[in-house]
Design a protein that fits this description.
single chain; 150 residues; mainly beta; Lipocalin; nine-stranded antiparallel beta sheet
């Protein structure tokens, strides 16, 4: 696995991440990877309400042609997306050369969750529909991520 290499500089680390993404998308049938991110949550429709900053872990995995991304941290920051489609959920892979991006939509209630991880510099931006303060709101979570030190 390319993560066993210990880069000497940030550029080497970025190249290692790009290699990992290439291997993830085209080189294997199953893989898993974990990032640690310092994020801040907010509700764009309600400027005065800002969540406490938090450190979250993001588990990115692939089985066959499907991507799975799980963000874990304080309760409101928890999110899960995947590219599977079922009678209940529709998953979409929006991954590009610059980011890993997965969107999931509940077919019945139309609630959406999406997680986008920019590759250089590594940065997460996630959005999910939540019911708070008597309203249906979009929760925006964003912040920089660190690659594991291997």
């Amino acid at each position: 696995m390319p993560f066993l290499l210990k880069p000497a500089q940030p550029l080497a680390r970025a190249c290692r991440f790009c290699l990992w993404v290439w291997v993830m998308l085209w080189g294997s049938q199953s893989w898993a990877y974990t990032l640690t991110c310092d994020v801040q949550g907010s509700f764009p429709e309600m400027d005065k309400i800002v969540l406490q900053p938090a450190t979250v872990t993001i588990d990115i995995s692939s089985i066959g042609n499907h991507l799975y991304i799980k963000m874990e941290g304080p309760k409101l920051y928890n999110m899960f997306v995947n590219t599977l489609t079922s009678p209940e959920f529709e998953g979409t892979d929006l991954t590009s050369d610059t980011s890993i991006w997965v969107k999931r939509r509940n077919i019945q209630n139309k609630e959406e969750t999406e997680i986008k991880i920019r590759r250089q510099p590594v940065f997460v931006k996630a959005i999910k529909d939540v019911r708070r303060y008597g309203k249906d709101l979009k929760l925006l979570v964003a912040g920089p991520c660190q690659l594991p030190a291997n």
